[in-house]
Amino acid sequence: ELGIRIPRPLGHGPSRFIPEKETIQVGNEDSTMHTLFADSFATLGRLDNVTLVMVFHPQYLESFLKTQHYLLQMDGPLPLHYRHYIGIMAAARHQCSYLVNLHVNDFLHVGGDPKWLNGLENAPQKLQNLGELNKMLAHRPWLITKEHIEQLLKTEENSWSLAELIHAVVLLTHYHSLASFTFGCGISPEIDCEGGHTFRPPSVSNYCICDITNGYHGVDEIHASPTGSIPSTESVCEVEALMEKMKQLQECRDEEEASQEEMATRFEREKRESMFVYSSEDEESAATRDVSRHFEDTSYGYKDFSRHGMHVPTFRVQDYSWEDHGYSLVNRLYPDVGQLLDEKFHIAYNLTYNTMAMHKDVDTSMLRRAIWNYIHCMFGIRYDDYDYGEINQLLDRSFKVYIKTVVCTPEKTTKRMYDSFWRQFEHSEKVHVNLLLVEARMQAELLYALRAITRYMT
């Protein structure tokens, strides 16, 4: 009546992929979750939708929030406004306007210069120099060499110190992988964010006004989720078949072990095959103007590492691993961060409730390892003691398409991809898959960057 425009949420709930009624409702959470919500609110000044989806796995969320808080707000080599600006640069590489907008607000809140937000060319030269590393880490980390590190550390008045560079690398990898989580779980913008609201009143064409007053929001909720629907025989069979394969693989493992040569061949085969996994919805998505100004070279994107006769040597984990090399380098140059990252990797990798869809008391370690190693395989990273033949047995094509999209080109993830894999599994299990994707991706990027730093130092 007063002519005031009232914002209304565009979506329902924190995720476009998970029906609101199946997420954990604020007010119904247990005491552990309540504490996490309070921590998240105190740290971020809001209860964001990432937290509301991650809380399916409280143990992981606690570790994630602790790490993110340390990277953004605790003592460290980089000033606060630099940290948020690097977050913007990293999220922008995947056109993740959700994360970009959050950090634009934080950047201004800690006193960042608004002019920098007009485009990367307005930021200090030191940050502009980070653009090349940001681009390669996000899309082709296997191309990073010690020369790239040297350029950043040796450019006279705009040079980075080793400690600053480690901080920047951890922030870049954190936000590349968080963009994967954001797109992989279909995170919706909050009502006060760009894209999170509309000023139009709800359309009344689809339902009567009494529905609105009863909190029914119309069309979106009519489509039951695949996981919430009545189990179809086909998808129940899918779970049974997967469990049967796990059992058979375990029996084969116990009976015989493949030779080193055979293991190497299987890795190469899987690496080659991963190049031919792409979605039918694979169209070029042009970077949106408001986000693309935060990075250079908008045409640079993911390319499989063995394309067009390029041969990238395999990264062998026994020559350079997170546990033996990366962890100590990070901890030495940016104390406590190595420890926080290590804990987060371990929680994601080992997290299990011993369930698979409707089955209880299941050992899922074989499946978790296949997912983790498949992601590292796509990045050219090989574990000598792993039989890559298991991946094809355990991960079907629709699942591989989803994994590759979320990890390599997250901005192309669709609800159809999310719905089409593991149709009988709970949403919490699909979110768990995304945690594995996020952490395996982050560790892969870190391994390439830290190895280059180590080579530069030696």
Automatic annotation (TrEMBL):
Domain of life: Eukaryota
Listed GO biological process terms: cellular response to L-leucine; cellular response to leucine starvation; negative regulation of TORC1 signaling; positive regulation of macroautophagy; regulation of response to reactive oxygen species
Stretch forming the signal peptide: none
Keyword Transport: no
Gene Ontology CC entries for this record: cytoplasm; nucleus
GO molecular function: L-leucine binding; oxidoreductase activity, acting on peroxide as acceptor
Matching SUPFAM superfamilies: AhpD-like
Reaction(s) catalysed (UniProt annotation): a hydroperoxide + L-cysteinyl-[protein] = S-hydroxy-L-cysteinyl-[protein] + an alcohol
InterPro entries named among the record's database cross-references: AhpD-like, Sestrin
Keywords: Cytoplasm, Oxidoreductase
Pfam families from the UniProt entry: PA26
Subcellular location: Cytoplasm
Family classification: Belongs to the sestrin family.
Protein name: SESN1 protein
Gene it is expressed from: Sesn1
